Amino acid sequence: MKVLAVHPGPLMYTKIYLRLEPLGLELVAEAARRAGHDVRLLDLQVEGHRDYLRMIHEWDPDVVLLSCNYLANVPELVDLAKVTKSRHPDTFIAVGGHSASFVAKEFLDHGEGAIDCVLKGEGEASIAALLRAVEADRASVHRVPGAATAAGEGPPAQTVHSLDDLRPARDLLRHRRKYFIGVLDPCASIEFARGCPWDCSFCSAWTFYGRSYRVVTPEKAVEDLQRTTEPGIFIVDDVAFIQAQHGMAIGDAIARKGIKKEYYLETRGDVLLRNKEVFQFWKKLGLQYMFLGVEAIDEAGLKMHRKRISLGRNFEALKYARSMGITVAINLIADPSWDRQRFEVVRQWCLEIPEIVNISVNTPYPGTESWHTETRPFQTRDYRLYDIQHAVLPTTLPLPEFYAELVKTQQILNKKHLGWTALKSTAKIAAGHLLRGQTNFVKMLWKFNSVYNPALQMADHRRPVVYEMTLPPRHNGKVKGKELFILPAKGRHSRAIDDATEQFVDASRMGTAV
């Protein structure tokens, strides 16, 4: 069959700082291709809806796979499904991805018959079975593991047997030079590990994967790395190098092969301090940039998001990263309860440190514990506002003033790290990019004011809402992890970490014993 895999358009944050290749969709596309199907991939981050409509008109795919990793993309994907079905009624339309897994029923309801199936969990594990069912007997699709249809749901979603079996269809992307993160332009993405053993209340990574943690063997990791042509690499792991031995083994394999790349990764402050030798080694291999999820600058804020790492350890981690010469970006979560004084305290802190500070808004998502336990009333059910840049809970300040203070605080990042300031400090890098025809990084330097604007954010709240989310029922008491999981929890043996690391994880989490 002819299968078209589609990634939705960009969100607010990705319009400036990064545009990552759709690695998850590439993995699903390759799994479909290995099953014998003719597969194409379209990324609406870099192409438009006209390109999509032209492709389905000219190529007439049998199956369209829509990827939904972010909740804010739900309306766009529902509309694409409806227009596709209206023009090609025999085309089978399936939606999958991280966020889609948590709102499968809502997707089907919004689609009003245009969406034939929502495939929950890891798409690589079930896509071949889904396509077999579509080809042989569409009435049997609901029996596929992880499938949700109007006729019912199949068995629970399955876990990929081994990450080593996966391979991304990187060749299917039509505009590979469009992907970047910061100065890494162009940049490919790679996966060394999947899942997270922690259980932060604001995050759905651990609930999606059932608190499992699996790794790619060093040999397979390096094979995939060798297939990338981009000089920059973003390591997509939720927390990089939790297991020191695994990080060192991949590093050793890279060194033996003589691979020269620049790397950007995400990790936790306590993991950095625990595995200093790993990050020191990777600095020699080309690690240049690191994202640390600090989340808060006081103990009360850390407790709110259930991050059991002391403030002192977070600051120690920042200091250590600086000592290695690594450029660090950190995230702080602005709660809607913040007043002017709180914003001002955060602004002063941001001015005093050299790190790149991103400010996001506390947003409960389906699949997170906070989605079920948040006691404040949700102010909107518009999917498009659930992008961590809009307030969906009541604000202490009037909403226009909250956005004014938020953007004023975010503006510090613009003044310190974008525009002419950034161009002066990265002139040589920028010139090199331009000589190679790479303009992503240079263009991003002047986009801040056109994207981050309180008036635009208020206008977003006034847009007509066609698709409304289903809010969670009131939850009395503590929610259990197993009630949130998409992939079944299999306990300790599902985490590829040694006993000492398991004890370290348990000591730094505050949730269930799953």
Radius of gyration: 22 Å
Tally of individual domains: 2
What's the CATH class label of the largest domain?
Alpha Beta
Question: Approximately how much beta-strand content do the residues carry?
Answer: 5-15%
Q: Give the overall pLDDT as a whole number.
A: 92
Q: What is the fold named in CATH at topology level of the largest domain?
A: TIM Barrel
Distance between the termini: 41 Å
Strand order of the main beta sheet, please? 3-1-4-5-6-7-8
Question: Which class do the helix and strand fractions yield?
Answer: alpha/beta
In short:
This protein is an alpha/beta fold and 514 residues long. The chain has helices at residues 23-34, 49-59, 74-87, 98-102, 104-111, 123-136, 205-208, 218-227, 244-257, 269-274, 276-285, 299-304, 311-323, 340-352, 369-373, 399-417, 419-425, 427-435, 440-444, 448-451, 454-462, 499-507; strands at residues 2-7, 18-19, 38-43, 63-67, 92-96, 117-119, 147-149, 152-153, 180-181, 187-190, 193-195, 213-215, 232-235, 262-267, 287-295, 327-334, 356-361. The chain has two domains: 2-153, Rossmann fold; 179-470, Aldolase class I (TIM Barrel), CATH 3.20.20.
